[in-house]
């Protein structure tokens, strides 16, 4: 078997640890220093794609849709979101770590088909919470592939996204009929109750990390009540 080759390292802000990008032949891996180990692998990405498929289904014919993707990762969530929305859409991808974005501009970008080259993409280097807390911005879908979900392990600052205040802020940032889709390593009934309390209609989907096999991951689908204004569909 061919050995792993280290391509780069990156520091997570606020002493969150060190990320390491490695490659073995056509396989890529991003791991976190310490006991957590591997965070993502280019051979298992179905659940990340399904996050976008499920979260953007309502936008297939939605003119000028605006979508936020929280977490660059290996680019699979972003690529699937671009496939799910029309040519008039804007998709903003946010990541705290500039190195991860640069990895996706480099050799890692091969995995998901180089979605950062798409003209519809806007990159935000920083906390996705900054976008969602901005009362002057509205979105038709928010896709969060950040940390391990509501029970995050990598970066404690992500906790705001899943808090009562964060959930309420996301609800306010969505257009009527907008959808929040959240990737999680496991179910979380407390988070479901929090979403409902904020006003969302909630579904919980279980998806496999690979089509038909592998670990089961959770996707929370939370829809804001109401209808989009007339004239929005192309």
Explain the overall architecture.
By secondary structure, this protein is of the alpha/beta class. It has helices at residues 46-56, 76-84, 98-105, 128-132, 159-162, 164-173, 189-198, and strands at 5-12, 17-24, 27-32, 37-41, 66-70, 90-95, 121-125, 139-144, 174-184, 201-210, 213-223. The strands form 2 sheets. The protein has a 7-stranded mixed sheet with strand order 7-6-5-8-9-11-10. A 4-stranded antiparallel sheet has the order 1-2-3-4, with helices on one face. β1 (5-12) and β2 (17-24) form a beta hairpin. α1 packs parallel to α2. The longest helix has 11 residues, at 46-56.
Sum this structure up briefly.
The chain is built from 7 helices and 11 strands. By secondary structure, it is α/β, with parallel strands linked by helices.
Topology, pairings included?
Blueprint: E1 5-12, E2 17-24, E3 27-32, E4 37-41, H1 46-56, E5 66-70, H2 76-84, E6 90-95, H3 98-105, E7 121-125, H4 128-132, E8 139-144, H5 159-162, H6 164-173, E9 174-184, H7 189-198, E10 201-210, E11 213-223
Parallel strand pairs: 5-6, 5-8, 6-7, 8-9
Antiparallel strand pairs: 1-2, 2-3, 3-4, 9-11, 10-11
């Amino acid at each position: 078997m061919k050995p792993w080759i280290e391509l780069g390292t990156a520091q997570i802000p606020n002493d969150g640890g060190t990320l390491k990008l490695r490659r073995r032949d056509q396989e890529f891996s991003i791991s976190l220093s310490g006991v957590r180990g591997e965070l993502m692998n280019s051979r298992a990405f179905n659940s990340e794609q399904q996050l976008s498929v499920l979260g953007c289904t309502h936008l297939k014919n939605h003119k000028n849709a605006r979508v936020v993707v929280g977490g660059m990762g290996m680019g699979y969530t972003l690529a699937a979101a671009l496939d799910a929305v029309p040519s008039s859409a804007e998709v903003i991808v946010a990541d705290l770590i500039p190195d991860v974005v640069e990895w996706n501009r480099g050799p890692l970008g091969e995995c998901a088909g180089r979605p950062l080259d798409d003209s519809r993409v806007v990159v935000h280097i920083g906390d996705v919470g900054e976008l969602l807390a901005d009362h002057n911005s509205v979105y038709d879908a928010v896709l969060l592939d950040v940390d391990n979900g509501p029970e995050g392990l990598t970066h404690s600052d992500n906790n705001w996204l899943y808090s009562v205040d964060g959930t309420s802020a996301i609800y306010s940032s969505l257009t009527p009929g907008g959808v929040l889709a959240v990737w999680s390593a496991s179910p979380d009934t407390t988070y479901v109750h929090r979403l409902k309390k904020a006003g969302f209609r909630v579904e919980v989907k279980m998806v496999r990390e690979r089509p038909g096999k592998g670990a089961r991951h959770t996707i929370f689908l939370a829809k804001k009540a109401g209808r989009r204004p007339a004239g929005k569909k192309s």
